[in-house]
Design goal:
- The chain has 228 residues and is α/β, with parallel strands linked by helices.
- It is built from eight helices and ten strands.
- The strands form two sheets. The protein has an eight-stranded parallel sheet. A two-stranded antiparallel sheet has the order 1-2.
- Helix 1 packs across helix 8.
């Protein structure tokens, strides 16, 4: 559960189910990274995964006004097609390779403990977001070596798992750029059409607090600026 308290007097003002809150917040973070780092002419988005996080990611993508088509894939093609059937306009791919090849954006939303796709399947100029892999590396090391790396917070690199990312252990803090630096204009983000951009998300408790604040403000009319 996530409990939102008034920052002045400590009153509990909202009690939220953590699982859907975190799933939607994580999907929203990956979507913000995609919009900041992917090529603006992206026409195909591959979502890898068939569980709760993949469903949340597809829901967020459906809320966007984008001409890009979305395809979903996983280790079980039947599950991928079943998930696609619940999302208007989404296509189920016969395999992860089929989904990744030709996609300008690849969003990995799995519980995998080993990399979920071969880096050779990526097209030049692709954007990759990895928001899963809490129990192991979701991305191959070659993806990180071949691309420009972006993260939510420095601890994604400097902290051991599960706070930090499995894939980023052994890297220096300077090897990754904060997504916030791109959003604020302090870093250019993508610098060429052929550049591979990689966003590795680990999440942070402060982000769930911010999401809870938004949820409470949406559910209850009136000022919520004193909540934290």
């Amino acid at each position: 559960m996530v409990v939102l308290f008034d920052e002045v007097d400590g009153r509990p003002v909202a009690l939220l189910d953590a699982e859907p809150l975190t799933a939607l917040r994580t999907a929203a973070t990956a979507t913000v990274a995609m919009r900041a780092l992917a090529r603006p002419d992206a026409r195909r988005i591959a979502v890898i995964g068939t569980g709760v996080q993949a469903a949340a990611q597809l829901a967020v993508l459906a809320a966007l006004d984008t001409p890009a088509e979305a395809v979903v894939a996983g280790r079980d093609a039947d599950r991928a097609h079943a998930l696609a059937a619940t999302c208007p306009g989404v296509t189920g791919a016969p395999s992860i390779e089929a989904a990744v090849r030709g996609a300008e954006v690849v969003l990995c939303c799995t519980g995998a403990r080993t990399p979920v796709f071969d880096p050779a399947w990526l097209r030049p100029g692709a954007h990759v977001s990895s928001i899963g892999g809490s129990d192991g590396p979701e991305l191959d090391a070659a993806v990180l070596r071949g691309g420009s790396l972006f993260v939510e917070w420095p601890g994604a690199v400097t902290c051991p798992p599960p706070a930090g990312a499995h894939e980023l252990q052994g890297l220096a803090e300077d090897d990754a750029v904060l997504l916030g630096a791109v959003l604020s204009g302090r870093h250019p983000g993508r610098r060429s059409d052929d550049e591979l951009t990689v966003f590795k998300s680990t999440g942070h408790a402060a982000l769930d607090v911010a999401a809870a604040h938004v949820a409470a403000a949406t559910a209850r009319p009136g000022p919520t600026d004193r909540q934290s």
